[in-house]
Amino acid sequence: MNRRTPDRTPRLPLPLPALVGALVAALLLSLVCGVGLGSAGLSWSEVLRYVHAGVTGAAIDRDEVAAYTIVWELRLPRAVLAAVVGAGLSAVGVAVQAMVRNALADPFVLGISSGAAVGANAVLLFGAFTGLGVWALSSAAFVSALAAMALVYAAARTPQGLTPLRLVLTGTAMYYGFSAITTLMVFSADRGEAARAAMMWLLGSLSGAGWPSVPIAAVAVLAGLTHLALAARRLNALAMGDETAAALGVDARRLRTELFVVTAAVTGAVVAVSGAIGFVGLMVPHIARILVGADHRRVLAVAPLLGAVLLVWVDILSRVLLAPVELPVGVITAVIGVPCFVMLMRRRGYTFGGA
């Protein structure tokens, strides 16, 4: 158990406001590229004109409807949703690593994403919840994520409360259990195309993004970010151990329960619209700590922006690398994440957030 005070010293000469400003600018530029780049081959002037028409309601010619639909109805909501999902996964990664005091933890360690996969695959493979129409997939994934959360909570909780080790062990066991159910569903399905869609969802994909998906995910992520930012000082205390946290007036058990509910709700909302995208919640918190130190007030100011920028570009790559074939987003995050993670482990002086 590490009891050192979190490192509050920024590792870069840039002050935090300048770094946050640079990341905001990078995010805006990334969103522009996310809308402008794609296999359709639209010029930048066309893209900007269609975005302007979408925002202001300006008229377009009848022969431009298809191109306008690509920009306004497909690319823009997809880029925005990629940013929202990246920010949410990164923030939740920070919270989960603090909650279980484990540098290898990420939002999926609690078993919630694999629980969401059960509901999503019930829709994709067996046509469940068809009465919900376009909301069937996201609704089923979210509800099954919440059910998985309740199951993990009930199994991990003891009369003494939640402990990091029990949470990790219970979440890991549930992950394998839900994954087995999902695999069984895929193998038992007789619809080849549906099985392919299920595999895409399991590896993460934003191909189903649309404007209806954006508000729910954005509200959940914004609410989670706000809560975590307000809890940043208590996260610093929790990172130093339960006894130290208690000495500082922080109820570690209550805070851990609070974080569990917040991270589960945000993870469920994000996974419902994007599938299971790995490595973002694991990698980005470590990169943020390298940039600004381990103080959660700084980490939570930087990590969501880093995650948003990263996932917008990963989604662009997934669309253009083998166009018109689309790669699963999770494949690209793994290709980027694995070498980065190995480099982090070998980086001299980096202590994985004090763990």
From TrEMBL:
The chain crosses the membrane at residues 79-96, 108-129, 135-155, 167-189, 209-230, 259-287, 299-318, 325-345. Keywords: Cell membrane, Membrane, Transmembrane, Transmembrane helix, Transport. It is a multi-pass membrane protein. It is found in: Cell membrane. It comes from the Bacteria. Its main location: membrane. Coiled coil: none annotated. Gene3D superfamilies: ABC transporter involved in vitamin B12 uptake, BtuC. The keyword Transmembrane helix applies. Belongs to the binding-protein-dependent transport system permease family. FecCD subfamily. This is Iron ABC transporter permease. The lineage of its organism: Bacteria, Bacillati, Actinomycetota, Actinomycetes, Kitasatosporales.
